[in-house]
Design goal:
6-stranded parallel sheet; 388 residues; 15 helices; alpha/beta; 48% helix
Length: 388
């Protein structure tokens, strides 16, 4: 097990009716910016619950944060905070709203071109340099409610880039599983697959000595496999909903990543597909993940076999056989969750995709990726072309 630091200061407030606790969690006597997306919080009653919990607070609203939050939109919120002396941000929404709020928090006091926060992957470590924020989660998927990372799109250049740092943890996150009841089936499917792939990025690498991290990761995968199809069809089932929400948080709150290698190349390639074709994030992961496992089979086969045996109860005459079966079981699960696992099923005019992705990675200096730094640009090209 490699050395690690574990720091997660988020006050995670889970369960039915917990939005009412906002009055205890939000600081007094500060102006609040309420950030949200397209307005679903009005339909599902969350907005009314938030307002009821903060009857005397001075709140300025900022709506319209996109499913892939855009730098250009978020900069408008940054200007509002600068002009109106706002002291706290309350993000009410899914991972995109929370991610966007993290960028807003970081950008307000940043000196220089705010786009550099993304292009230079700047880490924010000083809490005095950012605007504090809390969250009310409405769409489980990204784990953003309990981590310090974010992914933001720059519309002008069709790039999807990241930021983070220890200063960008939410002060608190309220997670009420009942709010998923009004979500469209597509978003629920996406949430399960996003959480599943988050675990796979941290788990499906190579065998190592961190036994507990593997077991925790496998338990999250098994839980998502067990409840995923059901929660999509029955989001009012509290047992299914609560286990889904908690699994999505645990998939990316930092716990299973400590002391182990991790990959993240599936996400790096998938982000380009979203930037180019506006394919839902989770659906890009379903397109790329299995093909990455196939192309990188020789370096991942031992862990693929472990995954197949422990998570899917597979048997076989050899490590290779079990590993191959594990990839196929994964694809079957993705199909069960409503994913179309070819790029051509999700977008048109895709013939130059591999060229574009490889060129972008080369320009950024992303020449070697993955847990062994052996996913070269040639491998990226092979993965993308196999995904057509």
């Amino acid at each position: 097990m490699t050395n690690f630091d574990l720091y997660n200061p988020v006050n995670y407030v889970f369960g039915k009716g917990q939005i009412a606790k906002l009055s205890e969690l939000v600081p007094n006597n500060v102006k609040i910016l309420l950030t949200y997306g397209g307005g679903s919080i009005f339909k599902n009653g969350v907005y009314d619950q938030v307002k009821a919990a903060l009857p005397t607070a001075e709140i300025i609203e900022f709506s319209g944060i996109e499913p892939n939050p855009r730098f250009e939109t978020l900069m408008k919120a940054v200007q509002i905070i600068r002009e109106q002396n706002i002291g706290f941000i309350l993000a009410v929404g899914g991972g995109s709203v929370i991610d966007g709020t993290k960028f807003i928090s970081a950008a307000v006091n940043y000196k220089g071109d705010e786009a550099d926060i993304l292009r230079k992957r700047i880490l924010f470590k000083d809490v005095n340099e950012v605007v504090p924020f809390g969250t009310v989660l409405t769409l489980p998927a990204t784990g953003s409610e309990m981590n310090s990372g974010a992914v933001i799109s720059i519309e002008a250049t069709q790039e999807k880039l990241t930021l983070g740092g220890a200063a960008l943890f939410p002060k608190f996150s309220i997670v009420d599983p009942t709010v998923i009841q009004s979500l469209p089936k597509r978003q629920l499917q996406n949430g399960v697959v996003d959480a599943f792939t988050h675990v796979m990025e941290q788990y499906l690498t190579y065998t190592h000595d961190a036994l507990l991290q593997d077991r925790i990761a496998e338990s999250i995968l098994q839980t998502l496999i067990e409840i995923g199809p059901g929660v999509v069809e029955n989001p009012t089932d509290y047992k299914l909903a609560s286990n889904f929400v908690w699994s999505a948080t645990m998939a990316l709150n930092g716990l299973i990543q400590k002391g182990v290698p991790s990959d993240w190349a599936t996400h790096m390639i998938g982000h380009e597909l979203t930037a180019l074709y506006e394919i839902d994030h989770a659906r890009t992961l379903a397109i790329i993940g299995p093909n990455l496992y196939r192309v990188m089979f020789d370096s991942k086969k031992e862990k693929l076999a472990q995954y197949g045996q422990r998570v899917w109860n597979l048997t076989g005459a050899s490590t290779e056989e079990i590993a191959e079966k594990a990839i196929e079981k994964t694809v079957e699960f993705l199909h069960t969750m409503g994913m179309k696992t070819k790029l051509s099923e999700n977008a048109e005019d895709i013939q130059k995709t591999a060229d574009i992705v490889v060129q972008r990675f080369e320009e950024r200096g992303w020449l070697a990726m993955g847990e062994r730094q052996n996913i070269t640009l040639d491998k990226v090209r092979e993965i993308v072309e196999m995904s057509y």
